[in-house]
Structures are given as structure tokens and as C-alpha cells.
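Notes from hallway chat w/ T.B., transcribed later so I don't forget. T.B. wanted the structure written out for a chain they're using in a teaching module, and asked if we could keep both sequence and C-alpha cells in one place. Agreed to drop them here.
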Amino acid sequence: MKISRYVVEYLKSKNINTVFGYIGGYNADFLDDFCEDEKNNFVLNYNEQASSFAINTYAELKNQTGVATASGAPSFCNLIPGIANAYFDSHPCLFIFGSAHSLATRKDKTIRQNTFEEIDAVNLVSDITKYAVKIEDKNNIKYELEKCFYITQEGRKGPVLIDIPYNIMREDVDVNSLKSFTAPNLPKYDKIDYELIIEKLKNSKRPLILLGGGAGSKNSREKLKEFFDKVKIPAVATLQGLDILPHDNPNFSGFIGHYGNRYSNLALKYCDFLLILGSRLDERQLGGYRTTLSNDLFIARIDIDKPELKRKLNENLSYFNDVEIFLKELLNYNLSDLDFSNWINTISKWKKRYPSLDKDKNSVGALNFLSQISDYLPDNAIICADVGQNQMSTAQALKLDKKRRLFNSSGYGSMGFSLPAAIGCAYAKEDTCVLSINGDGGIQMNIQELQTIARDNLAVNIIVLNNKCLGMIRKTQEKLFNGKDFVSVKGYSVPDFGAISKAYGIPYLKIDKVEKYKEVKEFLSSKHPVFIEVCLPTIMENTPEPGSCIELQNPILSEEEFETIKKEAFFDE
């Protein structure tokens, strides 16, 4: 059997019938065999970066390994952003690289290049993949494919690369003689002292659960729902974990971090018991080194990535374990007698006092717009946010009720993520309302993918929050460079988005008045693409803005107000 055919058949055995990417001379054999089967679907994006982002979200929604392909050095290099994003945000992805002839590539590293479009892909991405390999011997194809698929899903999920030179892709192989990969023994997880955790929880007055992306698997979500149905404990979320607990769940207490909801950060600041589930606790979540938590705080942490433990906080209990396993066992304990109503009422009071909304109700504002259109979204809507002010506005104000999902480029933080990520969602979940929320800067980085959306009539609702500048950088320049806004405002421009949507044949709606918010309700579609431009002032802010630590967000509260908050946190003790 031809190697290219074998790869196709292997994907079929894994129930994978959709591959994203771009065709070229070096992967043409693979795609010829793949597309020959009418049940298969090759999604041609107009830049490989879009393909690499699309399979991040596609993999998560399909609950399987996503696959993308590229041909030659330029094509491969365009994949790198999506490879990095999959690595940092833990998405299981396989990148199949059709490379130059194995006999023609350089053997001497002092030579810069020996043949057309050659590149050392394995070394190039070794730091942003869980595994990367080049097939030098055709008889290793089965072993390496099996190994790659195993690694994408094992432990903390992530991307792998398999480089197959085009001459090897064309060779024949005896399938029956191919060696197989044997998975190693499962890691020995730490034994968890559930009794101690529950004892500390029962003795606490202000407990909090912190949900990170590591708690976002399908099984973990189901176990968390069951847990929160039984026990009333406030839960906050990181950006990556923001859609794990539905926002209409009474336990949900918001988004933490630099741009987090103020009431959520106050809950984190004053809690006396913190259970951290699958969060890497980066500086944006903790708000910088000046953040101090309660003196009487007891921290228990569960994470499947062992090196992350005790790296940022001095946890009292740190366990290398799977959040799914932890939750499954935790549900066996009776916690129905716990009563944290005082603490829950306090956070509810803060939530009402410090909403993440625009104060000006008469002018178009990103936070108020996103909050209002939340009421128009179906229960299973899927949202992809880009990077920048639009992302933080989405995290602060959009309501992820019921079964809604949110995807971000959280760790890698790449502008241009949202539109291709939404394409991946639309292919994974047909006839579902998918929103792609963008800034005017980010949308232009992969704007060519409007053709993919129009070509295949994907139900992607494109929203551009247009303030005609690079808003987050402009805000940084305001703080650090006396308001000099070189190339964030001066030297920067945006196109006519109405004309662009018309060129692609996508229906267009312009929101330039608050009264027009309600028009979005009838304009959103789960059957075809639409384009919504929201016209915003250039000078705009999130609510709140980052400060020196999580409790000192801007605008900074008065000393009197902080005294009131402290008394409320301790229930006037």
C-alpha cells in the first residue's frame, strides 16, 4: 500500500474525515488519496495559519485529534501560530507536513539550504510540540502515527508534528510487516487526601473554586455540574476556563485576573479556602507579584501538569492528578450540609455594585453591546474571541449561559485567531450559531478567510468591534508614553467593512446607535454567514482596567470603600 494511502486509512480508523490545510506539490499525494473518498472533506483555507487555528477549536468540539496539512517550507511556517496555540492552550492536534525529497535535503548544518522549500521543521517546532518526528524510514509510518495520536491525547493534551518527505509519501509498504507503537504505563498519580481537603473546606467560611482550562474536558464539565447541583460554593474562572460553569449557575462568580470582573478578584482576594482545578496561574490571572491573598488562606491544587505545581503559589496541598479523577471521587462524599450563604450573598452584593458595563448608556459601548446581545444568543451558541480589547470585553461582559462555549487564544495570545477558529467550530458543529468576535485590527490578519466562510456558506456571525485603532496598545501608550499613539492610531487605518462584506456576498449590519442593538436579534443566523460592524469611539476602556494587583484595578476604589469591602468579606466580624 502506498504510504499516502496508508495515512488516509489510518485517519479513517480514527473516525477522522475532515482535514484542514493547503495543497502543494509535497502533500499532493496525501490529499489526492484523501479527497478520493467522497465521505472525506478537505477544507482549503486561504492561508495555512487559518487551518492551524481552525483545528484547535475543531478538535475540542469533536472531542478528537484535529488534523491539518501543509506543503513545503513557506506553507509549513504558516502553520506555526496554530501549533504554538495548540501547545499553550492544550488542544490535541496533528500537523502533517509534506516536505522536500529526503535525499535532497541538507546533511551538513553549515549549509543553509540544499533544495527548494526545505526546512528543518522538527527542530523549528520542538519547543512548541509534545512530539515532532520526521519519517526517514517508510516502515516506521505505523509506529509514528500511533505514537503521535497517543501523545496528542495523553496527559495534558497538545500538538504533534509528523514530517513526511514527498518521496516517502509515494513509496509502497507492506502493511502487515509494519511495527506498532506500545503505549507506556500510565503515570502514577499522587494519592489525594480527600478527607483533609473536605475537612478544610468544612472549616472555611469563604471558600472558592478556581476553574482553569484543565477542568474543561467533557467529563469534567459533567462532574462539575453534578457537584455544583449538590453544593453551593462560589466558583471563579480563568480566561481558558470561562465557559466551564454556565454563567447562569448560581455558583458562578465571574472572571479573575488583570482584566477580571472586580467582584471576582475581590472574592479571590478574601477567600480562606481555594481549590484550584487545572489552572497554570500565570501573571495575568494573579495580577502580578504585588497581589496578596488572605493570611488565613488554605490552598489545594489539582493539576495534570506536574511542573506547574507550587510554581506560582505555595499551595498547602499540591496533587499531580487528573481533574476528572479528582471530581469523580469527590462526588462520593456527602457535602450537602455545607452552608456558605453569607459568603455567597457577599459576592452577589459585590457583583451588583461592580458590574463590568459601560457607564454611558446612551453611546455605543462594547461591554453594553455584548451584554445585551447575550440575551439573543441560542443556548448552544459558540463564541470565538480574538485578542485585544475585544477579547477582554467579551470575557468581562458576554454571558455564557446554558451550553454556550467560548474559545480564545489564551496563552499564545494571537491576533487573527477568531475568524479561523470560528471556521473550525462551524465545521465541527453544523447548524449552530457561531460568533466570531474581532477587533478591527485582528480581523485584518486573516480577513481572507471570509472567502472560506462565503464559499462553504458557514454559519459564522462575524462581529467587528471597530474603534479604528489598536485599542489595547493605544491604552498602553496612554499610560507609558504620554499618550503618543504612533501606529496604534497615527499611521493605522481600517477598510470599509461594509464594502468588504459586500465583496464576499455576506449580509451586513452596521451598529452605530444604541437603539440598533435590538436589530442584532433578527440578524444573527445559524444557517448562513453575517457581518456586524459595531462603531465604537477610539478612546474606550474595559471595565475594570488592570492595576498593580487584582484588588487595585482601575479606577481604584477609595479607602473608605475598601474598608466597607473588608467588613463585608468578614461578615462584620
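Follow-up for T.B.: The chain is about 35% helix and 15% strand. Might be a good example for the class.
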